[in-house]
Amino acid sequence: MNYRHAFHAGNFADVLKHAALMRVLTHLRMKETPFRVIDTHAGAGMYDLSGDEASRTGEWREGIALLTDDPLDGPAEAVLAPYRAALAALCPGPKTYPGSPALIRHALRAQDRASFNELHPGTCVLLRRAMGRDSHLVINEMDGYMAWKAQVPPPERRGLVLVDPPFEKEDEFDRMSAHLAMMARKWPTGTAMLWYPIKNLAAVARFEAAIRESGFSKLLILELHVDRAEDEGPLAACGLAIANAPWKLAEEMQLLLPALAERLARGDVARWRVDPVLEG
Ligand SMILES: C[S@@+](CC[C@H](N)C(=O)[O-])C[C@H]1O[C@@H](n2cnc3c(N)ncnc32)[C@H](O)[C@@H]1O
Questions:
Q1: How far is ligand 1, taken at its centre, from the CA of residue 152, in Å?
Q2: Which residue's CA is minimally distant from atom 9 of ligand 1?
Q3: How far is CA 76 from CA 118, 238, 251, 254, in A?
Q4: What residues act catalytically?
Q5: What is d(CA 112, CA 110) in angstroms, rounded to the nearest whole number?
Q6: Domain locations in the chain?
Q7: Pairing of strands 271-278, 218-225
């Protein structure tokens, strides 16, 4: 376990993941009934962009920093509103950036709950420190896949599982698709949001084929390419596979992703994809 998200906080991949996450949470808040969010690979919760790790890579300069000065075009900016509001509330200055636990907590109401799962002991200490005491939250130092299996379905029977692993292991795609199939059996009405890097296009195609067989009939694929995807070198493209996406999400992402691709492009091959796919 060498991965530390502090090196990558606020990069283009976080922008996509967190902007989409805040839209999904906004949709969950539209009904009064309680929901639960299960974050399988939670990370440290808050990041210091002026700290050693973030400064060494400077990835946030090609991510969130490109969004701070100018709004996107009208309709795209409107889609970004819940993400912007959370950043404004959570970040005391431009040199901090929230992780998924801080964003999720920001969206919870009195009746909602979240569980944050993080295996790395040192990161878990940082996460507990960042979140403080909060009766709405449970923080577990445990394997995210074990947590996924053990914590679904939640008692509320409404909610989201966010799966954002480090992709240090060869079998990460296989573990994600197998656990998505597990969730389709145990909690077919829950929403799942799976983040993945796009480097090896054949591996991504195999993953897509596998999740089409997961048992979820409603799947949405989002992709953001800020440059040509390549096996080696810095990450230039990533995706989100969303099972049981809220019905307006595809429409919202059709507005947001072209503007994000244009703003975050590193070269002239930036592109995006919003693809509702059905079970194979
Ligand atoms: C990509 S980061 C998570 C970022 C976070 N979701 C966010 O958006 O702010 C992945 C995290 O997973 C943790 N991790 C690695 N292996 C894990 C495992 N098997 N179970 C749970 N967490 C794990 C890493 O320590 C790291 O903090």
A1: 19
A2: 99
A3: 33, 19, 11, 9
A4: 164
A5: 6
A6: 5-278
A7: antiparallel
40 neighbors 147 (Cβ within 8 angstroms): yes
Q: Which tokens sit at 47?
A: 């990041």
What is the number of the ligand 1 atom nearest to the C-alpha of 195?
Answer: 1
Closest listed residue to residue 112, CA positions, set 41, 25, 187: 25
Q: Contact 80/19 with Cβ under 8 angstroms?
A: yes
Report the residue count for the chain. 280
Is the torsion defined by CA of 202, 207, 208, 209 positive or negative?
positive
The answer to whether 261 and 199 are in contact (CB under 8 A) is no
How far apart, in whole angstroms, are the C-alpha atoms of residue 2 and residue 256?
33
Whether 177 is in the pocket of ligand 1, judged by its Cβ within 6 Å, is no
Angle between helices 74-90 and 12-28 (to 10 degrees): 90
Q: How far apart are CA 228 and CA 106, in angstroms?
A: 34
CATH dotted code for 5-278: 3.40.50.150
What is the Cα–Cα distance from 37 to 80, expressed in whole angstroms? Answer: 20
The pLDDT tens digits along the chain (280 residues) read: 789 999 999 999 999 999 999 999 999 999 999 999 999 999 999 999 999 999 999 999 999 999 998 999 999 999 999 999 999 999 987 799 999 999 999 999 999 999 999 999 999 999 999 999 999 999 999 999 999 999 999 999 999 999 999 999 999 999 999 999 999 999 999 999 999 999 999 999 999 999 999 999 899 999 999 999 888 889 999 999 999 999 899 999 999 999 999 999 998 899 999 999 865 4
